[in-house]
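Section 5.1 Outputs to date
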Amino acid sequence: MKKNLLFSIFLLLSGLVSYSQILTNPNYILKSHETLDVMKITKSSDGISLQMLIKNARDEGGSFCVNKNTTLIAGGLHYKLQSFENIPECPEVHEFEFIGDNLIFHLHFPPIPSGINIIEISENCNDNCFYFKGLIIDQKMNDELNSAFEYYESGMLLEGLAEYKDLLIKYEEKEPALEALSYFYIVKILEEIGNDQESFKWFESFLEKDIPDSEWVIEKLSK
């Protein structure tokens, strides 16, 4: 019995020291490059790693690199890129061979505090810098967003509207990125079903909230 107890304590302590969580195809709010995607995020006690894919969209002359000043922003703190794999450091570049050619690479950052659900990635450079804003690194949040968007994408607009309203209630004044995203789809869906008066009310409500980094909502709804 004593041996089993000690073994259980050892397992518990081991779990506190080392862990690993993998999230595939995470959602995001905004990104800089249309053909750049985050395929997988791995969180562990050693750090956070991103597996990324960039697809060449040019007929000729396409290239890509990563700046060593790339940072991860979480909870208002900046974490510098520690290492990277399968991609050159700028100004050296990877030359694509043809349109549609893919490059998969990895970025590695230090550990971030637990409880953070949304991060940003920002390449700090002078030209054609990439970024991801509102990158969701929590599995439950991703599942919720996938469910709401699947309703919208499949044309089940009333079901999607209900889910985005639920998301707004759940994350209002807790996660600004999800709050802004929920407002965006609520206004958009109400427009699409022809309820312009209600759509305008929700848009006015959004403007009154003054949610940080949510200018993109106005920009996209104005198109």
